[in-house]
Amino acid sequence: MAYKTAAAEPAAVPARAAAHPPRTNPRLPVKLPRRGGASTPWLYLAPALVVLAGLLVYPIYQLGLISLLEYTQAQVSGGEPTTFQGLGNYRTLLADSQFWQVLLATLVFAAACVLATLAVGCTLAVLLTRVRALPRLALMLAALGAWATPAITGSTVWVFLFDPDYGPVNRILRLGDFSWTYGRFSAFALVLFEVVWCSFPFVMVTVYAGIRAIPEEVLEAASLDGASAWRIWRSVMAPMLRPILVVVTIQSIIWDFKVFTQIYVMTNGGGIAGQNLVLNVYAYQKAFASSQYSLGSAIGVVMLLILLAVTLVHLRLLRRQGEEI
Amino acid sequence: MKLISRILATAATLALAGLTATACAPQTSDTGAQQDDKSGTLRIWLFQEVNNKPKQQVVDAAVAAFEKSHRGAEVEVEYIPVETRTQRIKAAFNDPKSAPDLIEYGNTDTAGYVKDGGLADITAEFGAWDEAEDTDPTAKQSVTVDGKIYGAPLFVGVRALYYRTDVFKDLGIEAPKTQDELITTAKRIHRAKPDLYGLAVGGAYTYGAMPFIWAHGGELAEESGGSYTSAIDSAAAQKGIKAYTSLFGDDNCPAAKCASMGGNATVTAFASGKAAMAIGGDFSHQAVEAGTVKGRYAVVPLPGLKAGEIAPAFAGGNNLGVLKSSSHRTLAVDLMKQLAGKETQGQLFDAMGFLPTYTDVRTEAAKKQPFVEPFIETLGAGAKFVPASPAWGRIDASLVLPTMFQEVVSGKKDVPAAAGDAAKKMNAAFTDAG
Lengths: 325, 434
Fold this sequence. Notes:
Radius of gyration of chain A: 24 Å
CATH topology of the largest domain in chain B: D-Maltodextrin-Binding Protein, domain 2
Largest sheet of chain B: 5 strands, mixed
CATH class of chain A: Mainly Alpha
Number of strands of chain A: 2
Strand content of chain A: under 5%
CATH superfamily of chain A: MetI-like
Structural class of chain B: alpha/beta
CATH topology of chain A: MetI-like fold
Strand order of the largest sheet of chain B: 2-1-3-13-6
Order of helices and strands of chain A: HHHEHEHHHHHHHHHHHH
Helix content of chain B: 40-55%
CATH class of the largest domain in chain B: Alpha Beta
CATH architecture of the largest domain in chain B: 3-Layer(aba) Sandwich
Shape of chain A: globular
Structural class of chain A: mainly alpha
Helix content of chain A: over 70%
Number of helices of chain A: 16
Oligomer: heterodimer
Largest interface: A-B, 50 and 51 residues
């Protein structure tokens, strides 16, 4: 779904531009004379719509449907009949105090990950524009390496690096046999490091590409006026990069909200007594490990709604500031 | 905006049109068998062991014997990875067409698979089978749900106390005779040798912790009238939880490291020489032999409360079961008898060290391999089994008991609170399972 959002953004621009041509870009042709019937655009759109319906609408429809049923392994394999539960699964879920704890932890953790990823990614992107070719190449390669590493491999290596008995990190920091995964916050911090490590390259590369597209003279003028690096970023780059920053922020929110592998591998399926559970791992334990597919679907629907809400609020805030994206 | 809403409306219409053409409700399969062919290809799934070759040789010999005595029948054996067995077997229940006729499965899954409608009831065939008479009662219990039999036990696995003979000799101590002694010995060793865990324990090692609860007279759950109620918060069970969790701490096994350990981690710690004692299974023997402590350890039954008593162990192990969807039921049952019969079990013990489920075959085995003696003694003293309820799969998968131990060990809750919460979760699962 992360890809869908990214793909939808550019597509939305011409659609809206066509709806309000004078406001957005006067250079666009106002209206082309229509050739053919009203159905012609739909004909062109049909293939994409069919694929979208098949890949997106149908699974979400099934997810919603299953969340209203009693659907466990016994129902799937025909041991017992499937029954309609109405909102029963949602009631069970909302009455579960653990769900609320996990939800809160997920929100805070995802927010921390998004902020840290954006900060690291943007800082390094700016750094990339200011160093010579060789260090730039080295940084790029390191970032691409982190990007290309599968999450499960990265997580395993990080756990090993921070291992209380054999890990080099504790030795360098002289932490003795401090166990990172024992405390709730240190375990979340450890996972956060890994998440930032494997997701900052996307932010860095995208923002770097954006900075490259900013006309040199604008940045030069700013530095001639004596603006500091921070000031250039805040007053020149960030505003000009706004559309890119919106996309990477939304992408990061979606990714970090859905973190699974890192938590599952690094904290052994949710940490000591489930202290490091996030929604996705919680849903997995409910839906697959214990075969309560209907309850797992209900969690999935709740996650979908939260992500939609966050994304819509974010877009709405931006529009209110008078920016078209 | 208008355009977007129109796109959405059309997309929805298209989607609905697509849906009416296909299925609207989630799928439910019909696992009932339609026929009982007396010839053709039988498919069987067995677990892929770490060192599978010897198992394969025994199975191949048994299959050859079966094909010889059943003309026109062919057997296809597939070894499935243990880590993904749950998904594979669930998939087999969901899609009877590509399902095998016979499967090997972990014995704690019996009740769950029966509820899923996956296993065939073979009570009549099992009753008429002469060899089945010698099956030990706990093993038989592990294939029984509501008085009906859903498979044949293939082997049992049971845990006992591994200890380091060199460390004990060094400190001039003997193997512990009671549970109290076990705990004090563990702490004494850790005091004398701080780089060793006295007794390696794990917060996620449910089956290593259960003997402590059972030794104090506690139970996981109690059955009345076909339904189960959790008993994990009873006074006796709480004493057991307290005894087990008292082993976590800087005086034996530091909570920061041991709280997250499971059974394998404790055995690995012992095998690599980081622990003076560990609770390991007969199936851990190979791993310990391959470790650095080879030749410097011995095994005794895990002591009970009083000297001479043995703490009841959990009777793990695997069973063979015929799938309800099998279209070769008679042949599949015959093949099951061949593979889980006395002869094959005896050979499997020689090849793999799997403890036979027949009391007489087991006695023979102990004569050949003295190392299994403490395990057989433990089984003889009465091993226990998890509640035969379909809810057990869910309780196990949602980590109810590890969470309880970890809450106590990490100081988040005291024993009554943690046990009370675990009992609530177990009861919710029992109620849902009906």
